[in-house]
Amino acid sequence: MLNPGPATEIFLAAGATDLRKSFNTLSALVRGRLEKDPLSGQFFVFCNGRHNRIKILFWDRTGYWICAKRLERGTFDWPGLQEKNAVTVHREQLAILLGGLEWQGMKRRAWFEYPRA
Fold first, then answer.
1. Which among 14, 35, 60, 83 is least surrounded, fewest beta carbons within 10 Å?
2. CB-based contacts of 40: which residues, under 8 Å, 6+ apart?
3. Report field, pTM of the whole predicted structure over 0.90
4. In this predicted model, what pLDDT tens digit does every residue of 5-22 receive, in sequence order?
5. How does the average pLDDT of the chain come out, rounded?
6. Measured between alpha carbons, how far is 49 from 13 in angstroms, rounded to an integer?
7. Cβ-count burial of 38 within 10 angstroms (0-12 exposed, 13-18 middle, 19+ buried)?
8. CA–CA separation, 6 vs 91, rounded Å?
9. CATH number among 1.10.3470, 2.40.50, 3.30.505, 3.90.660, domain 10-98
10. In which element (H, E) is residue 26 found?
11. pLDDT of the residue at 69
12. Residue ranges of the domains in the chain?
C-alpha cells in the first residue's frame, strides 16, 4: 500500500484515461490536461473508462514511479468530468478509494489544518 506523506497533494484526473500510457505520456497529461508539474513529488491518479483499473504516477527525485491496481470485480468510485480536470483528495480519501469504498459522499469533519501557501 502506498503511504504518501501528510504534505503530499493527491490529484485525481477526472474522467477516463487510456491506461496503456506509461511514464512519458502520463507525465505529459499531467502538464497538459491537469496543468500541474509532474516533477513536484505529488501523486497523480488516473482511471480507465470501465473504472476497474487505476495508475498512480509520482516522482521521487530520482525517477518516476507508476503503481497500478486492477479490480477483479467491481469498480472504483471515480469522479466524472467537471469544470476542473483534477480533483484534489486527502491521503485518507485515496486509501478509501483504493479500498473499494465510496469516498465522494464522505464528509470531512472540521478541524484545524495549517493553510498552504
1. 83
2. 9, 59
3. no
4. 888 899 999 989 999 999
5. 87
6. 12
7. buried
8. 7
9. 3.30.505
10. helix 23-32
11. 93
12. 10-98
